[in-house]
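Example record

One chain of 260 residues, shown exactly as stored in the release files.
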Amino acid sequence: MSWTRYVAIGDSFTEGLGDPYPGGGWRGWADRVAEGLATANSGVNDGVMYANLAIRGRLLDPIVTEQLPAALELKPDLVSMSGGGNDMLRPGADLDALAGKLDEAVGQIRATGADVVLFTAVDPVGSPVIRLTRSRVEAFSDQIRLLGAKHGAYVVDQWQMDVLRDWRMWTVDRLHMSPAGHRRVALATLEKLGVPADDWRDPVLDPLPELGRGARMLWNARWARGHLAPWVGRRIRGRSSGDLITAKRPTFRPVIDQSG
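Predicted structure tokens for this chain:
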């Protein structure tokens, strides 16, 4: 399969937070996938056109009601859709309603003839706070796998990617992937699509050294003060990190390789 019109929709994961370009702005796994598609399609027609409508902080509902219609207007042949992670962090998340919304959205995309890429969550077992959501995140990931089978969508199963439980794959806020994490997800996505790419399993990382109890408590306390507290504050005020943000790539543009 050769895709030449790729649109990515979602939240900060898809926007690329944590993976900066040297000159400013965010790269992320979706940009890296677009570059991989462009390399695979080198010399074919006009190459690969790519748009990224994702905005940090977005819940699944605005992804479906705002980003999806804009994406379909571009008439893509490939759409990656990741959403629900921010919903999962809220205690009252309705899994059935979220799964139903995602089911309808994927059906709309597939009805146009475009292919779809979905993502399960990463297993949060190693996170001192987010692991409290693990049971519902796992249940939602199960739903995503079922939706993939139902609609013939590609599913990148991050839950099974043990390397993503390594903190070197994440930035200091523990919510956004580092460049290394984004790279692994991009390579896993290309593998799922059958596009030639490096193996996301390499290099195999040596285990991180174990922190003592005191060092671990200090590490967690600094994270809570510097990152968890501001996040909770925004929730209390009904604000989002993406309130003043617009899509970084709202229309199709040719892909420029940023390999590295």
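Notes: The mean pLDDT is 89.
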